[in-house]
Amino acid sequence: MSENYSENQLLLYIYDEMEAEEKSAMDAELQVNPQLQKRFLEFKQTIKMLDELETEPSESSIEFIMEHARKLNNIELVARA
Amino acid sequence: MNMQKISDHELVKMYQSGLDQALEELIKRHKRSIFTAIYLLVRDRSLAEDIFQEAFIKIINTLRSGNYNEEGKFSGWAVRVGRNLTIDYLRKMKRDTTITDSEGNDIFSYLVIAEEGTKEDKIIQYQTEEKIKELVKYLPEEQRQVVIMRHWGNMSFKEIGDATGVSVNTALGRMRYALNNLRKLMLEKGVQI
Predict the structure, then answer these.
(1) Cβ–Cβ gap A68/B186 under 8 Å
(2) Complex ipTM, two decimals?
(3) A62 and B20 in contact by Cβ < 8 A?
(4) Hey, where are the domains in chain A?
(5) Which residues neighbour A27 within 8 Å (Cβ) at sequence distance 6 or greater?
């Protein structure tokens, strides 16, 4: 297995995009391959940092969107009447 | 009605039948990923709020017009709507999205990390989260896109490959380079990981 191939495979494993059989093989490989373990931990650490980046819009943005949706409903109700 | 256990697919149908509560639940579920994806591209909260609103208006109009063709996940599609609007905006503004911040400064010029135990760290030490946001913005465009689509768009590498016209392996390679670059930048800039 080339280095690139195993790292791409490792990403599929981390993001849970592997078939069950491939996943089991990767589980087994991780048990015995210290280099792969090291890269696994490094990827996981960096991905964990990305998880912490999430931010959210203001309440006023949500209210603006809902107001738009309500207006569309009213227009539709009037059109139907 | 308890909306929490209803799938996105069902919520879309319910909203298309006129139930605003379903839209509210979709926004609640996906606002963070959509907003984060936009914010990481534009680097400006106020502008990100405007594009986020515009993105949801487009989403609403598409759902109501019956033109929504759910081939993939709602979340991936919604993030792509936000991303496309952002890219359109950036193109219009002809902004450099790779090297500089919204004021045109090198992003690292203000990634000042105070040494522990000095007075300065109370004054100038930025939150780790803020530093990493800047690091993500520093990534080359194609790598940042993959990170945003996979991480906040909840798209598979295959879906990313299809959406960007590259193979799965190229999408994976870009993600790998992005993670390696981020890790390297974090270590170089002293961000604790």
Answers:
(1) no
(2) 0.76
(3) no
(4) 3-80
(5) none
Instruction: Return the closest-CA partner of residue B68 out of B22, B15, B4.
Output: B15
The distance of B124 to chain A (nearest Cα, Å) reads 20
- A53 contacts B132? CB cut-off 8 A: yes
Which residues does A21 contact at the CB level (< 8 Å), separation at least 6?
none
Structural domains of chain B in order of their starting residue, each with its CATH number: 1-97 (1.10.1740.10), 98-193 (1.10.10.10)
CB contact under 8 A, B52 and A70: no
Query: A58 — contact with chain B (CB < 8 Å)?
Result: yes
Q: Is A43 on the interface with B (CB under 8 A)?
A: yes
pLDDT by residue for chain A (81 residues), tens digit each?
Answer: 444 457 999 999 999 999 999 999 999 999 999 999 999 999 999 998 888 777 899 999 999 999 999 988 888 777 777
Among the listed residues B4, B147, B21, B149, the one whose alpha carbon sits nearest the alpha carbon of residue B75: B149
